[in-house]
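Readers of this paper often ask what the protein records in our data store actually look like. Below, we set out a record of this kind in full and without editing:
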Amino acid sequence: MNRTESLSSSPRGGTTEPEEYDLLMLGSGFGSKFLAWTFGEEGQRVATIERKYLGGACPNIACLPSKNIIHSAKIASYFRRGAEFGITTDSFTVNMSAVRDRKRRMVSADIDFHRDKYEQTGELIIGSGRFVAPRTLEVTLPDGATRRLRGKNVIISTGTRASIDPIPGLAESRPLTHVEALELDEVPKHLIVIGGGYVGLELSQAMRRFGSDVSVIDRNARLAPHEDDDVTEGLHALFRDEGIAVVLNARIQRISGRSGERITVLLEQGGIEQMIEGTHLLAASGRAPNTEDIGLDLAGVELTSDGYVKVNERLETTAPGVWAVGDVTGGPKFTHISFDDFRVIRDNINGGNHVTSGRQVPFCLFTDPEFARVGLSEKQAQDQGIAYRLFRIPMEGVLRAHTLSETRGFMKALVEIDGDRILGFTAFSVGGGEIMSAAQIAMIARLPYISLRDAVLTHPTLMEGLFPLFASAPSVVARSANARA
């Protein structure tokens, strides 16, 4: 039995005084685990309380497993396109059990790494924790025993979960969330997806490539409605070409049946009722914070109006010595933001004044092609009254894309009018996330765009596309009339 297992299972019920720690983590998500490991390696007494997913959602049920499944779907798409590459196959079969098992092996290896790291740096307690007093947590262990712990500093890292909208019949239909969708051992005959956000779009395309009929239902007039028109048009064209039905401006009236068997969705669109029938239902319309029933009121921790932990720009809660990290703060719901939250709290516990305001928030939607952006979009620039020079090229202008037969999409960049600073970068392309990261590094270094235009970049690579992008003739986009007014 290793140290972690023995510590996490030792009953301590009936203790009158809490056990004292330098740092306590309620939840083992991305930001909190780096806090635990960092301060533990420095010799502080650290404990992490985790109810279920060691390491948080990312390695278990979110980022990494979903991208694993998406890559398997990419391979399936290559089989369908085999003739295009000079490879002929009469037929092929998608074995979803094998797809799932590949994902499970990756997750298992990652969790083993987490266990080893916790064993080296501090105490891992498997159980359900809740506040019972300021900076004091009570943990119910799997055997029913309890432990009471108090920390000089306490980190709330309880994350979020998939929300189930109050649609008549939705909860009763037992819909899939992303958690169950990543555990499917069969290809759904017809998957109905509620929600056109990150989870809905990524899994819709993946399941379509595995062989499902897929229908996406969204309340908005466009997919990714807050993004620029060329992005939303690109996503619509992509889904249309892959045979994914998209139903927009839809208001779901009622759902009947059971996911995995037979599902009927009654909706209203433009004043007309219609019905969609399928075999499986995926609820992907939003996230809800995990802040209920953990005693935050007893700790003096206030919540926002929508249930997230209220924090300031230093990620301090309303309770002294209690911090919050990651999705539960209501900030951008990205693992890389949670990692930056770790840096903020680490520095502030050590006496610094690190704040979250003004940081870059890059992101990538892992459809194929990917949609990645950092900095300003055109819509944001126009809404803020910021004039800019727009550089834009189709991916057909990138030679590496031709070698891959992946010329769909475009790259574009916004550059300030009175200088050479890059204000924003967008890629809807193969490898879009990697290309964006190269542009982001230039933005962090405050390099003028001409540094990328004049750089000697390896040929042929996707990053080489930054040269024709910034060598193209820009168009000047004036401040929006509304912003000037």
